[in-house]
Design a protein that fits this description.
CATH class: Mainly Alpha
Radius of gyration: 15 Å
Structural class: mainly alpha
Number of domains: 1
CATH architecture: Up-down Bundle
Shape: elongated
CATH topology: Four Helix Bundle (Hemerythrin (Met), subunit A)
């Protein structure tokens, strides 16, 4: 179990560092597409930390929603952020690749409101993940 917690700690620390970057992007009021993508990445890493803490040895995939559903079988509190995970998942491809959009490029498509919503969703996910991980530290 100690090895699982060490891996979980690595993932949550990276998720928190990514979150700090997203907040910086938001404060700078630019690079909305990149901020939305890193918000998705931060949420993904936080959720993966919880899966590692719960004993998973290998966590593959990028869907926050799918991972939250799995975690909700262990802790019903994760059900409270399924919508947030689903919204963040939408930033995985189209924020990076022009062919992920019907027209335009990501930097032209995503805006301040998208980033603000992504940050709000990410806050909810990180908070619930931190609470879950704290149970293992006691």
């Amino acid at each position: 179990m100690k090895e699982s917690m060490n891996e979980a700690e690595r993932w949550i620390l990276q998720a928190e560092d990514d979150f700090r970057f997203v907040k910086w992007v938001q404060e700078e009021d630019l690079f909305y597409d990149k901020g939305c993508f890193i918000a998705q990445q931060s949420g993904e890493k936080a959720v993966k930390a919880c899966l590692y803490a719960s004993g998973e040895r290998s966590v593959i995939g990028h869907s926050i929603l799918d991972m939250l559903k799995k975690l909700s079988t262990l802790d019903k509190n994760f059900e409270n952020v399924l919508s947030e995970g689903k919204r963040l998942d939408r930033f995985y491809i189209p924020t990076r690749y022009p062919n992920g959009l019907p027209g335009g490029s990501p930097f032209q498509t995503f805006d301040k409101e998208d980033l603000s919503n992504a940050v709000n969703d990410l806050i909810q996910i990180i908070e619930i993940c931190q609470k879950f991980l704290n149970k293992f530290k006691q």
